[in-house]
Design brief:
Helix 1 (about 20-30) links the parallel strand 1 (about 15) and strand 2 (about 35-40). Helix content is about 30%, strand content about 20%. The chain is elongated. Helix 5 (about 125-135) packs across helix 9, helix 5 packs across helix 10 and helix 9 (about 285-295) runs antiparallel to helix 10 (about 300-310). The mean pLDDT is about 90. A nine-stranded mixed beta sheet has the order 6-7-5-8-9-10-11-12-13, sandwiched between helices. It has a four-stranded parallel beta sheet with strand order 2-1-3-4, sandwiched between helices. It has two domains: about 5-100, NAD(P)-binding Rossmann-like Domain (Rossmann fold, 3-Layer(aba) Sandwich), CATH 3.40.50; about 110-310, 3-Layer(aba) Sandwich (UDP-N-acetylmuramoyl-L-alanine:D-glutamate ligase). With about 325 residues, it is α/β, with parallel strands linked by helices.
């Protein structure tokens, strides 16, 4: 599979702010696509590492922001410290656009399928399970957005493939063009998710994974946490929204849940016992969520179930 071609940015000036995994991958992808790239990080160690890798730095104090088409923000390193905030403030006053690496992907891989995973505690586990299930079912799925797997370091999925992406509240804020085919809203944790200052702020930004979703696109929502229940109630007032609640604690109408170690599917009526859940190896909730995502993507029930049962978190 070819690398991702960020063709909309050919010959355009782009500034990458933050040089963690996301920022360095964005620099390489933009340079390979013909963009004019400069980058910066407030952390000197990351700047030195970027220079060692051949990336070009650009001192933000010497940049004429009126000539910059946009800024790509490394959401994995961003902390909103005063120096970072001042750089962004000056750029935005000059009319620069601030985007995430996922936004670059959305503008370039327009025909791919997209799955969002909003989970502060288990995103990598869910991504691995999605990759396994979709792969066994013959679906091409690139997964990333979690630590060590920047999305712009993935391969091009093309029109026949898709991406499953770990989203954070900050990524949601700076990803404006994406409409996810399936969005998994699982948890935001119990403490503020930096740089969000409150859980409520993280929830409000996280809700952007449902932006512009209409059927057949689907929202898979964890009903076992307060923000998930609130999201279900809020989205349920929109008749065009397709909702699939999931739970590892209790039955849920029109959703997927586990009870006494058994997976139940109630997405089309009365609950049907599907199969035992291997809770010792993998989160019951995550199995419910990935099963629901597979159904929403058009994978037949028997295939989704069979692929789940072949997965082992220890060897998968």
């Amino acid at each position: 599979m070819p690398a991702i071609d960020l063709f909309p940015y050919f010959a355009l000036p782009v500034f990458v702010l933050g040089l963690g995994d996301e920022g360095r991958a964005a620099c390489r992808a933009l340079e390979a696509s013909g963009a004019e790239v400069a980058a910066w990080d407030v952390d000197e160690k990351r700047r030195r590492a970027a220079l060692d890798q051949g990336l070009e730095l650009g001192d933000p104090n010497e940049v004429d922001w009126r000539e910059r088409f946009g800024i790509v923000l490394d959401c994995g390193t961003w902390q909103g410290v005063p120096e970072e905030a001042e750089i962004v403030s000056r750029a935005e006053r000059a009319g620069c656009e601030l985007v995430s690496d996922v936004e670059l992907l959305a503008r370039s891989e327009r025909d791919a399928q997209y799955i969002a995973v909003l989970s502060r505690t288990g995103a990598s586990e869910v991504l691995d399970l999605l990759a396994h299930v979709y792969g066994v079912c013959g679906r091409e799925l690139e997964v990333g957005g979690d630590p060590g797997r920047p999305v712009l370091g993935l391969r091009s999925a093309g029109a026949e493939g898709g991406y499953a992406i770990a989203m954070s509240p900050l990524k949601c804020r700076h990803t404006v063009s994406m409409t996810f085919d399936v969005a998994l809203f699982l948890d935001v944790g119990v403490a503020p998710w930096p740089p969000c200052r409150t859980v409520e702020e993280a929830v409000a930004l996280g809700m952007q994974v449902f932006h512009r979703q209409t059927a057949p696109r689907a929202a898979v929502i964890n009903r076992d946490v307060g923000p998930g229940e609130a999201a279900l109630q809020g989205l349920g007032r929109q008749p065009e929204q397709r909702l699939i609640p999931v739970s590892a604690r209790s039955p849920v109408p029109r959703g997927v849940f586990t009870h006494d170690g058994v997976l139940y599917d109630a997405t089309e009526g009365p609950p049907k016992a599907i199969a035992p859940i291997e809770a010792e190896e993998l989160s019951s909730l995550h199995q419910c969520a990935v099963y629901a995502a597979a159904l929403a993507s058009g994978i037949p029930r028997h295939a989704a179930l069979a692929s789940l049962r072949t997965y082992s978190s220890r060897g998968g």
